[in-house]
Design goal:
Blueprint: H1 5-11, E1 16-20, E2 32-39, H2 42-54, E3 59-62, E4 68-70, E5 75-83, E6 94-97, E7 100-104, H3 109-118, E8 121-122, H4 134-139, E9 143-144, E10 147-148, E11 153-159, H5 171-184, E12 185-189, E13 208-215, E14 217-218, H6 221-239, E15 252-253, H7 259-262, E16 274-275, H8 277-283, E17 290-291, E18 294-296, E19 304-306, H9 312-330, E20 339-341
Parallel strand pairs: 2-5, 3-5, 4-20
Antiparallel strand pairs: 1-2, 6-7, 7-13, 8-14, 9-10, 11-12, 11-13, 15-16, 17-18, 18-19
């Protein structure tokens, strides 16, 4: 059972009580967190998780909230930790050595991309202007224009959330505690991350991502800047400043589609072995659809926008309609790219 509310303030003195999560998501939809801790300090993340585990207190870890759908009708019980440098009041950990950049996972992805381009490092330019943090991007193996963040990743510093043992305050006990904590913090390789299309081991393991190391090839700085500028313009037209989690559904891997369903698809729409879900949704009349406070963009069938006043029920109802339409037309089951926090 969770600890009593009266003791929670002592456990998490910097956490705020009963906070709306809507401002912490790009979709602008959310219920409340029973307790919310916003930090850019990786050690505070570790300490909060250890304290929660030790006291059987439920906890959740968020980044920039760009791929999260919260339930506006519920309160997330326990502690929600937002590991995000959204204020940017002082520099977070960023180290450059040769063609390697190591950064804290709370760093906005856009800042990492901009830094790599400024140094003439090739590999992340396709991810220009994707919202959220580096950590969140790694969890979902974020990507665009045929490339993903996993391609340049070298390794990730994780904390696996094992509970700390209660110990005395003796010097030896404190050393043992520190040693145990360091064992639960470790670097894992790109291979160990088990990346695939919009997926990673981090969706299945309760790891906290603290820092990440990226290795790049040398590119032409002017070419990278030109490509980034083009992508910025394209994303401004596509997403603008709307409240949206970005692409709502994953694109469809051709290798996962039956021959019968594939025969119903316009083959000219297939890109890099994937069927764009935006095409499938446009075909079934999704563009411009409205439901409650939601609207699907007139120009992109896979972009759901919160126009204000949207509810989680609106989301679930619209998602069901869209999935049913695509399955009826193509025999293809859509899978969300977003993650629900309910």
């Amino acid at each position: 059972m969770p600890v009593k509310t009266t003791s929670t303030k002592k456990l998490f003195p910097q956490a705020k009580k009963n906070v709306s999560l809507a401002p912490y998501t790009t979709f602008g939809l959310g219920g409340r967190a029973e307790y919310l801790l916003v930090t850019r300090d990786p050690q505070k993340v570790v300490t909060a998780i250890q304290t929660a585990k030790k006291n059987n207190f439920p906890y959740y870890l968020m980044g920039g909230g760009s791929n999260i759908i919260c339930n506006d009708q519920s309160t997330i019980k326990g502690l929600v930790v937002v590991y995000d440098d959204r204020n940017g009041s002082s520099p977070v950990e960023i180290q450059t050595k040769g063609r390697t950049i190591t950064c804290a996972c709370c760093l906005p992805l856009s800042k990492l991309v901009a830094l790599s381009i400024a140094k003439g490092f090739a590999g992340l330019e396709s991810l220009t202007d994707i919202p959220g943090t580096v950590g969140g991007a790694l969890v979902g193996n974020a990507g665009a224009y045929g490339h993903a963040i996993a391609e340049t990743l070298d390794s990730v510093l994780i904390f696996d959330g094992l509970p700390a043992r209660r110990t005395s305050s003796s010097a030896k006990a404190l050393r043992d505690k520190t040693a145990k904590q360091e064992k639960t913090k470790r670097w894992i390789s790109r291979k160990e991350c088990q990346f695939s299309y919009r997926d990673s081991i981090f969706k299945r393991k309760n790891y906290a991502l603290l820092s990440a190391k990226f290795k790049f090839n040398q590119g032409d700085k002017k070419d990278l800047q030109k490509m980034a500028a083009s992508i910025t313009a394209d994303r401004l037209v596509k997403y603008g400043h709307s409240k949206s989690p970005g692409s709502f559904f994953k694109n469809i891997l051709v290798s996962k589609v039956s021959k019968k369903s594939l025969a119903l698809v316009d083959q000219t729409k297939i890109i890099d072995g994937k069927i764009p879900t935006g095409y499938l949704l446009a075909t079934v009349g999704a563009k411009g659809m409205k439901l409650g406070g939601l609207k699907i963009a007139d120009y992109h069938g896979n972009l759901i926008i919160n126009q204000g006043g949207a509810t989680f029920r609106d989301v679930t109802n619209l998602v069901k309609i869209l999935k049913d339409r695509v399955y009826t037309k193509f025999g293809i089951k859509l899978e969300e790219e977003v993650r629900y926090m309910i």
